[in-house]
Amino acid sequence: MFESAELGHKIDKKAYAKTMPTLRADLLDVQYDLKQSGRFPVIILVNGIDGAGKGETVNLLNEWMDPRFIETYAFSEPTTEELERPALWRFWRALPPKGKIGILFGNWYADPILRHSLGKTKLAELEEHLFEINRFEKMLADEGALIFKFWFHLAKEAQKKRLKALEKDPTTRWRITADDWRGYRDYDARIEVSQHALRQTSQAYAPWIVVDGSDERYRAVTVGTILLESIRKRLAWEGDTTRRIASAPIVHPIDSSNLLNRLDLSRKIARKAYPGELEHWQGRLNLLSRHPRFRKLSLIVVFEGNDAAGKGGAIRRITSALDARQYRIVPVAAPSEEERAQPYLWRFWRRLPRLGRIAMFDRSWYGRVLVERVEAYCSEPDWMRAYAEINDFEEQITRAGAVVVKFWLAISAEEQLRRFKEREETRFKRFKITEDDWRNREKWPLYEQAVCHMVDRTSTEIAPWTLVEANDKNYARIKILKTLCERLETALRGKD
Amino acid sequence: MFESAELGHKIDKKAYAKTMPTLRADLLDVQYDLKQSGRFPVIILVNGIDGAGKGETVNLLNEWMDPRFIETYAFSEPTTEELERPALWRFWRALPPKGKIGILFGNWYADPILRHSLGKTKLAELEEHLFEINRFEKMLADEGALIFKFWFHLAKEAQKKRLKALEKDPTTRWRITADDWRGYRDYDARIEVSQHALRQTSQAYAPWIVVDGSDERYRAVTVGTILLESIRKRLAWEGDTTRRIASAPIVHPIDSSNLLNRLDLSRKIARKAYPGELEHWQGRLNLLSRHPRFRKLSLIVVFEGNDAAGKGGAIRRITSALDARQYRIVPVAAPSEEERAQPYLWRFWRRLPRLGRIAMFDRSWYGRVLVERVEAYCSEPDWMRAYAEINDFEEQITRAGAVVVKFWLAISAEEQLRRFKEREETRFKRFKITEDDWRNREKWPLYEQAVCHMVDRTSTEIAPWTLVEANDKNYARIKILKTLCERLETALRGKD
Lengths: 496, 496
Known about the structure:
2 domains; five-stranded parallel sheet; Rossmann fold; alpha/beta; homodimer
C-alpha cells in the first residue's frame, strides 16, 4: 500500500518553477467556481507520518488558494461539551458548508489508529470504528461532499532523518515534540494499523491518496494537482450526485394488512381512571428524571404522527412532569439557510442534548422518509439511503449514552376529519387548519405506506418505535408516559 | 426595595380558579401572536431567593404556554469552551431568536452577586460588572428585545420555613442542597448585595420586578399577568422600537481636513527592500505566534478599507507566516437567516476564537457604521448606538485575553479607479467588478465621513485603529505585519 510512496519521488526546482504558477492560478480559479456554484463542500482529511509535511502542505494550499474560503481544523483533546456527545459530534461541528473547503487534521481516523497501535483497543473495536467511519463517509458522499483522504507517507529511515533535520534547524525545532519521537519508535506498529485502516476505508467515493512526503515540491504539486482535477471534474459534471445511487425495489405486502390498519384505534381509557393514571406516571417520570444515575445518560424523544394526532398535547403532559431547566423541545420545521448548506442530519446533530438533559423532537429526522418522500421534496435514492443513515445516527447517539424513544401517534381518517372540523370552529387562531393539512389528507394511503416502511426499517433493538393508538387522547398520553418510564427504568438499571 | 414583597401577598383558591383559565388561554394566544409576528425576542431573567418558587413558576409558565417556543436555560459551571471566552459569551449563545421566549436561570446576575456577597470581589468590581450588564441590556433592548427581570423574594424567616417544609416533604426533599442552607445563612449579605445590584440595574427598558414568593398562586398570577400585558402591549405597538432613541447631532469639522485626507498616500517602500522586509516581519510574526505565552491570549484582526484597497492580499501575507491550524478567516457578507433573528453583534460573538487562536475578519462589525450607515440599511439611531456597543464588545473580548488589532486600508480615488480598470481587464473572473463597486465609488465623500467618525469614536487605548496608507501595496503589507508584531509583543510582555 505504501510501496510507491517510498520511492523518494522528486520534482526538481526547474520543473516546479514551471508548473507552480499555472497550478496556483488554476486552483484559485476552481476555488472561486466552487464558491460561486455553492453545489457541494470539499472535505480534505490530512493524515500520515509525523514529519511527512502535512502542516507544510496545508499551509501551502492556503497560500495558493484564497484562505477566506478554506477552514482548517486541528482536533486534539476533546472539550467537555464534546465529551458529552457521540465521538463524531466534534467533526459534524467542523464540516464545511457547500461551496467551501474544509481541511481536517487529527480527524476521525486519528484516534482509532493511535489507540489501536498503542494496544488500547482490540481488533474488533478498531474494525467497528472503521465500519462506522465507512458509513459516515458514505453518507457525506451521498450528500454530495467531495472527499479527499491524503496519507502523507515516509519510510522509517526517512522519518528519522526528517525529524533530526527539523530538530537541528532552530526555526523548526519547536515543532518536534516527544510525541513525534514516540511515533517514530512505534513506527512499525502504527504503519501496520494504518495500512489496515486505509485498506478497509478506501472507497470509490472516498479513496485514500498516499503521498510520498519526502520531497516538499513533489508532495505540494501532487496534492494541488489532485485537488484541481477532481474539483474541476466534479464542477463540470452537471448530473445530480444524489441520483447515481440505484435503489432497491420497495416491497409491498401482498395482502392488505399493515402495521397501521392492524392497530386497534378504539382503545380507550376510562374518563374516571385518567386523572389517577396521569398523576401516577407523571410522578414516576419525575422521579426517574431526578435519579442520580440520570446524569450519565440523556433522553431523546421523537414525536411523529398524523396531523392533529395530538403530539403537542402529549409533549405537554411530559413536560409538566419535568423541570424546565432539564429539557428542550425542538419543533422541526423547514431547515434554515445554514442547515441547507449541510448534510441532512446536521440540523439534528447540532441539537443533541448533553448528558443529564432531555430533548424532545416535535417531528424529527424521520421527515426525510415521511413528508419529504411523499411530497417528493427529495429524490428516491435520498430517502432510500436515509433509513440506514438514521439507524447509524441512532446507534451512535445511543452508544454515547442517549436513550432514544420514538412515538408514532396514529389516528383514523375519520377522527382526523372530526378534529380538523373542530379546530376550524374554535376561536383560537393557533388551531388554524391550513391548505396543507387538507392536502396531506388526500395522500393518506401514501403516508400510511411510508410509515409502515419507516417502522419496518428503523425500529431497532436500541431504538424501537412505539405505535400509539391515539383516537383517544387520554389513552395515548398514558401509553406514552408509561413507555418513557419503562425505557428509562431499563436504561437506569443498565447504568448501575 | 423588597418591602412590598414581604407583605405575604396571597390569592385564595377561588379567585385563582376564576382567573387562571382566562390568563392561561390569553398567554397562549399572545405567545402565538409573538411567534407569528417574529418581531422581537422575549428574554425572561429569573433570580431571587432559594425556595421562593423560581423553578415552580417557570414550570408553570411552560405548562400554560406552548413549551415548544420557550427555551429554558440554567447556567451552572461554565464549560471549557466557555471559559476561554468573555464571561457573557455563554449567554449570547442562549439568546432566544425573534418570536421566541427565552428563560434564563443563573444568568448574568448570578455570579457577580454571589461572588460579592461571599466577599470574593471588591465593590468596585461589582460595580464594574453591573455597569457592563447595564450596557449589555441596553443593547438588547435597543435591538428590540423585550426584557423581564424577575426577582422572587422571601423574607428571611419565610425562607427558613419554606426550606424546612421542602425538606420535610419526601417528594421535594431532593431539591434542598447544602447550597440552599448556605444561602440562608448568608441571607443578610446576599440581600444587601442584591438590593444594590437591583437598584443599579433597574432601567426603564429592563426594570426589575420583585415578586412575593410566599404564595404559589399569587406569584404565578403576578408573573403571568405581567408577561401577558407587556407582550400584548408591545405587539400592539406598531412603531419601530429602534426609532425611539434620539441621536445626538453629528459633528463635522469646520475646515476641510480630516484623518483620511491628511494621510500621506504617496508612502512607498523600495521594490528592492520589500522581499527582505517581508521575510523579516513574517518570520517575527511566526515566532510570536508560537510563543508559549501566546496560549494565554487570542488575536483578533479586523480588516476594513476602501474597495480594492488590498485587504485580501494583506491577509494572505499574514496567513503565510502562520500555521493554518491556528487561524480562521471570517469573510463577512450578508447575515444568514439565523443571524438576522438575533442582535447585530451576535454573528461576531459566535466567531470568537479560543485562547491560542487567531481570527481575521475580512470586513467586520464595523459594517454597521460604514456600509449600513451610508446605504441606510439601518436607521440612524441604530448606527449611532453601534459605536458604544462596539466599544463595549471590544472591551469584553480584550478583558478575556484577546488582542484586537484593527486596520483601515486607505487608497485614493484615483488609485481605486486604476485598480478597478485593471481588474476589469484581467482574465480571472474572480476579480469581477460589480455594479455595487461603481456605485460605492460615487458615495466616496459619505464613506470618508463615516470612516472618520468611526475612527474618532472607536479608536481606543485597548483597541486602536491603524490607518494604513495603501496606494503602495507593499508598503501597506509591511506596515500591517509590523503593527501586528508590535501589538503582540506588548501583549506577550503583559502576560509575563
